[in-house]
């Protein structure tokens, strides 16, 4: 009997765990996207503005190194999601190179610029994925609990259930919102997986493709 209970609970437990992992991945991706956007836009703007006095080149190189750090963090997140992530391939200064050459090496490294591009793109994919997933979470939780918190809502001339012609009054409105909540809850794991896959797929393309080609 214990074995039967374990087998019955395992799929549900795995589904909940995966939902939590996908939600955490998407939320963290949005936060990192905001940081990446701020770093790259500020750094590149400042670097280009100061390039006439040469300091801009150092600012640009520093910005690329910061973007590289964010890229390494994203690669680590991809590994934790079970993806095959090869070691990143970066251009290195030759042995014995001077400090200035070592400092400016990231400027001629294609992967460093891809890292900077990812910092910008991650804000877009992170925002889209986070917005969609939050909408589903709010719809699910709000719909399932609407019967309780609707008592604090002000009276409305026409509720959604009346607009749709499916009934009238708070009871019918509560049942309608409950239906929305159930549908959102049932589809939430699939939506979360899709949002996480979108963000991870773009990250994989920008951060890992060149390393895979180099490895081959």
From TrEMBL:
InterPro entries: Put_sensor_dom (IPR025828)
Recorded superkingdom: Bacteria
TM helices/strands, residue ranges: 25-45, 51-71, 116-149, 178-207
Domain Putative sensor: 25-207
Pfam families listed in its UniProt record: Sensor (PF13796)
The entry's keywords: Membrane, Transmembrane, Transmembrane helix
Name of the protein: Sensor domain-containing protein
């Amino acid at each position: 009997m214990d074995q039967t209970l374990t087998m019955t609970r395992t799929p549900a437990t795995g589904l909940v765990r995966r939902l939590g992992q996908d939600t955490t991945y998407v939320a963290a991706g949005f936060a990192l996207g905001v940081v990446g956007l701020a770093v790259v836009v500020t750094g590149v703007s400042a670097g280009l503005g100061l390039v006439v006095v040469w300091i801009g080149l150092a600012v640009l190189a520093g910005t690329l190194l910061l973007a590289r750090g964010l890229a390494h963090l994203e690669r680590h997140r991809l590994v934790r999601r079970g993806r095959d992530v090869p070691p990143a391939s970066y251009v290195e200064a030759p042995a014995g190179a001077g400090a200035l050459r070592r400092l400016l090496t990231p400027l001629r490294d294609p992967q460093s610029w891809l890292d900077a591009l990812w910092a910008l793109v991650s804000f877009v994919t992170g925002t889209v994925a986070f917005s969609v997933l939050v909408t589903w979470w709010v719809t699910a939780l709000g719909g399932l609990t609407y019967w309780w918190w609707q008592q604090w809502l002000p009276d409305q001339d026409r509720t959604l259930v009346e607009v749709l012609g499916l009934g009238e009054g708070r009871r019918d409105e509560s049942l309608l919102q409950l239906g929305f909540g159930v549908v959102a809850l049932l589809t939430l794991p699939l939506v979360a997986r899709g949002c996480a896959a979108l963000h991870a797929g773009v990250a994989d393309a920008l951060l890992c493709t060149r390393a895979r080609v180099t490895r081959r």
